[in-house]
Design brief:
Layout lengths: L4 E3 L8 H8 L2 E5 L4 E5 L3 E6 L2 E8 L4 H8 L2 E6 L5 H9 L7 H5 L3 E3 L3 E3 L4 E12 L11 H6 L13 E12 L1
Antiparallel strand pairs: 1-10, 2-3, 2-6, 4-5, 5-10, 6-9, 7-8, 9-10
Length: 175
């Protein structure tokens, strides 16, 4: 029995700016028995195409990217502050190499997409659009964002730009 209940997404009371900077939620995709998750710090919430939606950014090299690409639905789980170590583990460990969900002690629940019972709030989304950031789309010479995150000489070094995933919020769960 879940300790989360469905609420109306039109009544969402959430600081959308701190959610990704401070709370760093988990993005999760897959089936009830085969899934992966990762901590994300980049995301936006709003409306597009007359739908409540979220846009999230994941590099193609991430294992979770494979699950997001292969599935029509995914979730965003916002954990309480006491799970900071779990968020660090899920953001620095690959699911290709270890069962980080078990290592983190998270309890998987499933409702058209996997999510975690430990969350204070969960958004379940249906994918509507996906695309890649294109290097030619960065504005201005020496764009600081390109230089910081994608340029070969940056700390990130030669990594492909993130892909964006836009999903309609089809269900919102809260404690």
């Amino acid at each position: 029995m879940s300790n989360l209940r469905e609420v109306d997404s039109n009544g969402l009371n959430l600081n959308i700016f701190s959610t990704f900077l401070k709370d760093t939620p988990l993005i999760t995709a897959g089936s009830a028995d085969r899934l992966n998750t990762m901590t994300i710090g980049w995301g936006m919430l709003g409306t597009i195409w007359n739908k409540n939606a979220g846009t999230f950014y994941v590099r193609p090299c991430r294992y979770t990217h494979d699950f997001l690409t292969a599935n029509d639905t995914f979730s965003i789980s916002i954990l309480p502050p006491r799970y900071r170590e779990v968020l660090t583990l899920c953001g620095t460990t690959s699911g290709r190499d270890t069962d980080k969900i078990s290592a983190a002690g998270l309890t998987v629940a499933y409702d058209v997409a996997p999510y975690f019972e430990e969350a204070d709030r969960v958004m379940i989304l249906r994918k509507m659009y996906t695309d890649a950031f294109k290097t030619e789309g960065f504005v201005g010479s020496g764009c600081e964002h390109y230089d910081t995150y994608y340029a070969p000489e940056s700390a990130q070094g030669n990594l492909l730009p993130h892909d964006l995933f836009i999903g309609e919020v089809i269900k919102l769960l809260e404690k």
